[in-house]
Amino acid sequence: VYITIIYTVLTLLLSPASPDDQPNALYSLISFSYGVFMLVILTRARKIVRQQNEIPESSCIGCEDFCCAFWCGCCTVSQLARQTADYDREDARFFTNDGLAPKESAPAIIV
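Predicted structure:
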């Protein structure tokens, strides 16, 4: 999360003033590095989920995780979300560790 925040701040500070201006080399390097970083993270996450659920590779044997993350990262994130929870039985929630509703409800405190 911190890397994404730092990336956002740096791109805002280093981005060209107008669309007609050419971006400087540092801006291009940071953007490229962040793209590679996200590609590596997504590839590793997909590989871990596939190994935990014993899902074999069906295409591009040996590099399927990379190919999926590279060619369609949004689809890969969606696939990972569907693979890690059954959203027909459980509601999805924002701002939780696993994206699901808490398993136990905390006791209510009446003041």
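Summary: The CA atoms of residues 25 and 99 lie 38 Å apart.
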